[in-house]
Automatic annotation (TrEMBL):
Gene Ontology terms: cellular component: membrane
Protein keywords: Membrane, Transmembrane, Transmembrane helix, Transport
ABC-2 type transporter transmembrane domain boundaries: 260-469
Record-given protein name: ABC transporter domain-containing protein
Any one GO MF annotation of this record: ABC-type transporter activity
Start and end residues of each ABC transporter domain: 11-110
Membrane topology designation: Multi-pass membrane protein
Organism: Rotaria socialis
Record-annotated ABC transporter family G domain positions: 144-200
Length: 540
């Protein structure tokens, strides 16, 4: 294949061509104008000003008859938006923003009724025969069961059968070729239907039992007659070569990487704002859970009985934020995968820019949840009333939440589908909870399972929060002996006067608070690196 007389690569084709997929893949939370404006910012040359981009968007809205819907939301399953025809025209408009020289469309009339399908093809016909040479575009379109009016809008057609070309040439000459081959088009018959009926005759049914199907040899003779009735096609592979140098020199350059991140970050935040009911619900749910935990373990104090309650409540706080955070994002990448693949395929942005913008926006929206949780639950429980202790506790709650979402993002990016992601995630969550440092303390972990214990992010968050709370803790000896089990499984009853005794008994002192923070940060980096690998290289 040649592009203006010379071989080409995909990157070059993306810069001069647009591709409208069969499915209308759009961000349902944005309006028509916002969708086109973000696309304009990402795809128009970096030399364009905001006023020029706005003017180009207005031109596209006017050309495609979308001016009246500019402030309407695209729509999602739970919220109705624009019509199917308008969605298809938005997809076309996104590709026309940078005025491509080629526009490919995959069955654009799919899902549309006959009237809206005809309206769309009228628009495409007008674009292909634009008065201005600057706006004219060559349109290559696959079409499914076109009505006669739609068929008559095409200039040239390629008729395919089992991957072989049965006819290629002007649309007006197609019926003449079939007539010359002995298959004239009957009166009042859609020419498109007639052409397909000849090359793929329908099988007889019960109502028309007199029909006799053609044999394979008879059908081959029909195909050969059609091919012989056509003059040989001469194609000049050097056609347009004189245009190539100037054409390729003036190709637009997309915005730089850092600007792509800023644009996508704004788009993600705007989408999150449109879904604010989910954020409000998450915050409200967090406050309710924090209040319930705080009232169940209300003001545990420093008596001997508080020893039996202090570690369970810390572990439950870690589990709460370490599990719920993962569940909220497990379907993040699978839901957006098809949309991002379409945008990346058209050269809209780099995969790394999309990933960084998504991570930043999601983290910004996620951070208030563990902060609110810490502020409510810490003082209700009555943990050590020191500012440094409180902020270290909050850091571990935040790190645990971010680590769990990082693991969920990695799973969703590598598993690719929501169904597979929600199958894998519960197993990993159960393993991290089992080896979380509470049910099986670090001092009692069997050696042959130590590698699983080392991979549990819950353990590092719990051990770090426990060290923060138990270090410097002074307990009252009120005559009640607490039964404990030490590392060698010997049961003793004694009065515990400090948190350090618990730290040594449970084996929490094998790592420091700083070490726990460092491991959690390493977990976050590791998981997000593999999440990016999944987003970047898994394209199916």
């Amino acid at each position: 294949m040649r592009l203006n007389g010379a071989p080409y690569d995909n990157a070059e084709l993306k810069r001069i061509a647009g591709y409208v997929m069969q499915d209308d893949l759009l961000n349902g939370y944005l309006t028509v104008e916002e969708t086109l404006m973000y696309t304009a910012e990402l795809r128009l040359p970096r030399t364009f000003t905001n006023e020029q981009r706005k003017q180009r968007v207005d031109e596209i809205l006017d050309e495609l008859g979308l001016t009246h819907t500019r402030h309407d939301v695209i729509g999602v399953q739970s919220k109705r938006g624009i019509s199917g025809s308008e969605r298809k025209r938005v997809c076309v408009g996104m590709q026309l923003l940078n005025r491509p020289q080629l526009l490919f469309l995959d069955e654009p009339t799919t899902g549309l009724d006959s009237v809206t399908a005809l309206d769309l093809l009228y628009i495409l016909h007008a674009l292909a025969h634009g008065k201005s040479q600057e706006k004219a575009v060559t349109i290559v379109c696959s079409i499914h069961q076109p009505q006669a009016k739609i068929f008559n809008l095409f200039d040239s057609i390629v008729l395919l059968k089992a991957g072989h070309i049965m006819y290629q040439g002007p649309r007006k000459q197609s019926t003449e070729v079939f007539r010359a081959a002995g298959f004239p088009c009957p009166l009042f018959t859609n020419p498109a239907d007639h052409l397909l009926d000849v090359i793929t005759p329908p099988k007889p049914n019960q109502e028309n039992s007199d029909e006799v199907p053609l044999t394979i040899e008879q059908q081959k003779s029909v195909d050969q007659a059609l091919i012989k009735a056509q003059p040989p096609i001469e194609i000049d592979l050097n056609m347009g070569v004189h245009k190539r140098v100037g054409q390729m020199a003036n190709l637009p350059r997309n915005p730089p990487w850092h600007k792509q991140i800023r644009i996508l970050f704004r788009r993600n935040l705007q989408e999150q704002y449109r879904k604010k009911i989910l954020i409000i619900t998450s915050v409200l749910q967090t406050v309710i859970m924090a209040v319930l935990i705080g009232t169940v373990f209300l003001d545990i104090g420093t008596s001997q009985t508080s020893i039996l309650r202090r570690q369970p409540v810390i572990f439950f706080c870690i589990i709460n934020q370490g599990v719920f955070g993962a569940l909220t994002v497990i379907n993040s990448f699978p839901v957006e995968r098809t949309l991002t693949l379409r945008e990346r395929a058209s050269g809209t942005y780099f995969a790394s820019a999309y990933f960084v913008a998504k991570i930043l926006s999601d983290t910004l929206v996620q951070l208030p949840i563990p902060i609110v949780f810490s502020c409510v639950v810490y003082f209700l429980i009555g943990l050590q009333p020191y500012a440094a202790k409180f902020f270290i506790f909050m850091i571990f709650i935040i790190l645990c939440s971010v680590t769990s979402t990082s693991m969920a993002l990695m799973i969703s990016a590598l598993c690719r589908t929501t169904a597979l992601s929600v199958t894998v995630l519960p197993m990993l969550l159960e393993l991290t909870r089992l080896f979380g440092g509470f049910f099986v303390p670090p001092a009692n972990v069997p050696g042959y399972l130590s590698w699983i214990d080392a991979l549990s992010y819950i353990k590092y968050a719990f051990v770090g929060a426990a060290l923060n709370e138990l270090e410097g803790l002074r307990l009252n000896c009120d005559g009640i002996a607490v039964t404990i089990v030490n590392a060698t499984y010997n049961i003793t009853a004694q009065c515990i006067t400090s948190g350090e005794n618990i730290i040594q008994t449970r084996g929490y002192n094998y790592i420091s608070i700083g070490g726990c923070i460092g491991v959690l940060l390493s977990f976050i980096i590791f998981c997000r690196f593999w999440a990016f690998v999944g987003v970047r290289f898994l394209k199916h």
